User: Fold DUF420 domain-containing protein from Emticicia oligotrophica.
Amino acid sequence: MKAVKAKQDKASMTFINVVSVAVPLVVAILLGIRQKLDIGAWTKVLPHVIGAINTLTSVLLIYGLFLIKQKQIERHKKIMTIAFGLGGLFLVCYVLYHLTNPSTSFGGEGFVKYIYYFVLISHILLSLVVLPLVLRTYFFAWINEYEMHRKLTKYAFPIWLYVSITGVIAYLMIRPYYV
Assistant:
């Protein structure tokens, strides 16, 4: 029985590794496409949807932390599952927007420009780090391996929260420059 579980866990970890590499590669490739698809003007609202998703994710992460500290495990699971699902929705909206619209340039000048690029670059780099951490953390919770879940959460949670919050900050800073 343990051998079967070990094989399943290994297959799951392989899948997580593949997704953790494939998602950033696919996003990078899609962002590099110069010819944008025209699927309608509705895609212009996607940055605002993405900002809302990041905001809601940040709130849910903090609420999920509160719930687990209160030992409300079932509610914590539900909230974290919603936050996890919002991550998937974010990715779909992000890809759709960048497939259909040119990138928006930040128009601020002076010191604020350096702040914006620091926020944006740290957000992007840590989003690459957090993806495999969140996938593993969620997986270990899903299979009731709570010790591994707790160990990874110490790293995954603060990075995920930082990525969510900096996503909101970057959105608020570039929002005036969306056409």
Remarks:
- The helical segments are 2-32, 46-69, 73-100, 111-142, 146-174.
- The CA atoms of residues 5 and 11 lie 10 Å apart.
- The chain has a mean pLDDT of 92.
- Residues 2-177 form one domain.
